[in-house]
Specification:
Elements (H helix, E strand, L loop, with lengths): L11 E4 L2 E5 L5 H15 L16 H17 L5 E5 L5
Antiparallel strand pairs: 1-2, 2-3
Length: about 90
Amino acid sequence: MLLNKDFTPAERVRLDGLLLEKLSPQHADADFAAVRESADHIRHVFGPDNGWPDAEMSFEENLADLQRHAAEFEEGRAFNYALLSAEGND
């Protein structure tokens, strides 16, 4: 890992009318809606052969992804954030 062992990532960051918040299962409803609405746009963002999100992805699969992201954050392996309005609305 390239991070200093004492590195502590921020769980919330406010920026010019926006809020970055540690991605977690609490964002499940809004995240699932956003992923479904933008699926065609975000598909293949991670490479031409990456088919995420699958057209048939269920809410439960998305929730499992969020649980994994939260665990990765706690373990210091990856840091995913939800991008929200400054008020914290989805």
